[in-house]
Every structure is written in C-alpha cells, then in structure tokens.
Amino acid sequence: MIPQLRRYALSLTRNPDAADDIVQSTLERALRKRHLYKPGTNFEGWMFRICRNLWIDEIRKKKFDAGPMEPEMVERMMTFDGEKQMTERALLANVSAAMAKLSEDQRSVLLLVGVEGHSYAEASETLEIPVGTVMSRLARARRNLSQQLFEATENRQERGQQEDEGI
Amino acid sequence: MTISDETLVSYMDGELTPAEAGRVESQLAASPELLRGLLAMLRADKAAGTYFHAIDDRPLPAGIVTALEQFPTGASTEEAAGNVVPLASAPAPAQANMPRRAAWHLPLAASIALAIGLGTGLNLGVAPQDGAGTSSLIAASQPLYNVLESVASGQTVALEGGTARYATPLMTVAAVDGVYCREFEIAGPQVIVRGAACRQGDGNWLVAVQTAEATTNTDGNYRTASEQRPAAIAAFLAAAAPVDKEQEQTLIANKWTEN
User: Fold this and answer.
1) Testing the interface with B: which of A138, A154, A165 to mutate, by most B Cβ within 10 A?
2) Is the model's pLDDT at B144 over the cut of 80?
3) Does residue B101 register a pLDDT over 50?
4) Could you say which of A113, A116, A150 has the minimum Cβ distance to residue B43?
C-alpha cells in the first residue's frame, strides 16, 4: 500500500520530496478520518482521493511550485548505485523531462494502468472518472510520452521548446 | 480503416473483445506504422515504470514511519472495531521493482506481431553516419553479423573491411517474447556508432536503434563502453530483460534459439 501510495503521489507532484510529504499528510489525515472509511470499499481509492485532495490544497496555497523536474531532482530520485545507475540515469532524466509535459491526470492514469496493471474499470473506480476518460487520458499520455521519448531523437535539444499538445 | 489511439491502448491493455482485438491485429499486420506506434507506447509504459518505481528505492522518511505506527494494526481499539483500516502492515522494504504488468501479457497474435515489428520498422530514424555498413538489416554476409552472432558481450573484435573499426557487443537482453537484442558499439577513426540489434526469426539481425557520435581520440584508439548510454538506446533497452553471461554463452552456442 505505501509503495503504491508513494508512486501515486509522485504521479501528482513529479517531485519525490513533495510526494513523500504528501504521503505523510495523507496517512495523518486518513488516521483522523478513519471513521469515514466504509469497510469493504476500495481502500486504495479512498487513500488516493485523500492524497489528491491534499495535493490540490497544496497547489491552491501555492506551497509547492510544480516546475519541471530538473537534473538535481533526478539525482535525488536516483538512490541506486553502480551499474544500475549507469543504465538508468539517462533514461530517468529523459523520462522526467517528458513527464513534465503530461498533465497530472494523465500521469495518474498511466501509472495505474500502464505501470500498476489495473484494469480500466479499477482505475475508473479509484480515480472516480468514467472508463471512457481513463481510456482517452491513457491514449494521450502514452502517445505524448512515446513521441517525446522515441521520435525526437535527432533534435533532442529542441524538445524543451515543443508545445504540449492537446492537453 | 484506421485505428484510433483509444482503440490501440484498449488493445494493449486487453480491454477489447476478441472480435475487436482481431480487427486490431489484422491492421497491425498490415501497417508497420501502426505497429511502430504500438511498440513505442509499450516502451513508453516501461519507461514510465522505471520512473515511478524510482521512488521505491528511496528510504522512507521518518515522518511516514511515525504516521504508520499510529495506525491501528487490528481490531484492537473499540473505535476501530469493524472499521479496521486495512493498511496495518509495516512498509515492505524498498525494492527496485520493475513494472509488474509489462507489456507481455498481450494476446498471442499481438506478440507475434511485435516480434515481426522488431523486424519491420523499429528504426528511430537515425541513419548510419559512418559508412560502417550498418544498414539496418545485418545479414550473414556483413561484417557485423558474426560479431552479433558469436562474440561475447564485453569482447572487442576488429571488423573486417577497409578502415580500422572495432566492434564490441555490450550486453544482451531478452525483448518481447523471446526476441534477443544486443547492444553494440562500433568504434572507428571518426565516429563511434552505438546501437541495439535484434535477432530475427530468419537468422538476420536488425538494428533497432542506433546513434553516432564523433570519436574524441584522434589517434585511432577507440573509446570504451563505459561512457553514458545514449538515451534512445537506454529507452529501448529498458523494455527488455538483461541476459546474464552464462545464458548468453548458451544462446551463442545454440545460435540464439532456446534449445
């Protein structure tokens, strides 16, 4: 549960420190409000909604400026060492930059379906959005990410200026 | 008939009926462009998995541990009776999970299409730039063929041909459904080409991704593979599982078939 929650928080914040902060707040609020949880319902969804609401509050208060996640942030994401680090650093830096061009809604759907392996129905329930919306966000997220990662090989440096499309 | 991205992702995720999936598959078989799109999205998922799972490896902050300890761990408090929050268990030790769904739960026909796809179009549009003869298809007659086919990763051999060029397979990975791919480097006097090639069903190797950069040394010495892997190759390799030395030896001995 905690690993899932951390990854979900990361999909909202794109910033690992902010993600852990919000995970902590989520746990604290869930504890205070645990009488509101209905046994037998989707607990993960309940936690995710708390998390998301907290994040929306944060943004509203502008406590955290969701700027692009940049190299030093990638460094902070990277806690592995040695060979794995060599292998993944370039990829992670690249993906982090690409993720910044997705909306948080797209990232969340991509995480739940594309990474966690949830069905559209499960993601729809967890995120409280229609199945059709899961599908369309997923299509945009994957198309956008794959274009950024795999289609601009020659003009990598220009990618920073590319406009976000259709979001 | 065109296939929308919505249909394509639904196909990827196993959300279509068999009849709908069949229609997508016949389109995939007919359209390398569509197949390339599907492959790119599958790899995007893999890349996203690496990104999201990177937070798994970070130590859990003390604040989270403390908050977790406050949670009722069973029906012990009367308040929580019948209302136990199913969180209880201590956090699992951080581990470097790779995404668990991976693409490879696709219907069989799709897997076949993917294997074909590696042979039809997965070229990232980087043209060979050094005249090293690395056109995307590496047939048995080409110098690079023997290197990919039978040289162990980490070993460097001189490529046959005019100028001094040295080829090194760097690592072997198992890609979609038993397709093996090898990262390689070719170092020449002017240019270092780095890429990944996948072995096709017909025995040829196909270069799936390739980058080139100028050689820094001017004395003809080649640089070693310790440099950072180009992002395009890293992204490509992220969608595959590394093959260890021993397994690689067996594969070479068996000419890249499983048995």
Assistant:
1) A138
2) yes
3) no
4) A150
Q: CATH number of the domain at A2-61, please?
A: 1.10.1740.10
In chain B, residues with a C-beta closer than 8 Å to the C-beta of A154 are 125-126
Q: What is the pLDDT of residues B173-226, one digit of tens each?
A: 887 556 888 998 887 666 677 888 888 878 888 877 777 665 544 444 444 444
Report if residue B65 sits inside a domain. Answer: no
Q: Is the pLDDT higher at B152 or at A81?
A: B152
In B, minimum Cα distance to A108 occurs at: B52
Q: A101-155+161-165 is classed in which CATH architecture?
A: Orthogonal Bundle (1.10)
Strands (E), chain B: 137-138, 157-158, 166-174, 180-187, 191-199, 205-214, 241-242
Phi, psi of B199 (to 5 degrees): -80, 130
Residue among B178, B183, B187 at smallest CA distance from B251: B178
Same domain, B134 and B43: no
Apex B40 CA angle, B35 and B45, nearest 5: 130
> A162 to chain B nearest CA, in Å?
18
The answer to whether B259 and B236 are in contact (CB under 8 A) is no
